[in-house]
Amino acid sequence: MSSPQSTDKAAEKADPRATILRAAADRILHYGYNKTTMSEIAADCGMSAGNIYRFYPSKADIAEAMTREYTSHTHAVFNDIIRDAGRSPSRKLRDFFAFRLERTFRTFEQNPKLMELAEIMARERPDYLAEERAQERILIEKILDEGRTTGDFALPAALTITADLVQCAMMKFRIPQLWTTEQLDALIPEMEGVLSLVFTGLSARR
To answer: What domains does the chain contain, in order, with CATH numbers?
Structure first.
């Protein structure tokens, strides 16, 4: 039986893009996005500088691919939360945002050089970030719609509008290091307080 590491290596050999992303991530996490060049990434992959541009036309394309990979793992957990029949809609919404807060905070806490990548994405790839927020909003809609069906939530506006408002209310907890120097132990109760206000607004009146 092959080890996970050998499986990863085989996948990289079959897909040069995986090799490039792995090398880019290693270098960016160590030196930062701004101090990493395409030539250095190519050298780490054993490729020519010209060859790497066949797969990623620019360093920003590599940054986007890295972000998409990270987001895909996040959304996989989001979907697990949504599908969990043992959680109420309120619990799903709380766990959704709690997971997002802790994962993003820990990621940037452990890899501070990634902040440069986040900033370049905000500056150079706003369309992708809008796409990612829209995908997240669809998942929030699913939780709200379930809550409306079960009678847990009484939406104050149309489903999409309500999901957008909930998402806006929780924006500070998306990548908190972009907004604040507060630590996780301070951010968690603050997030819980904001969610309590959200739940008050969503509560079905009986």
So the answer is: 4-55 (1.10.10.60), 59-202 (1.10.357.10)
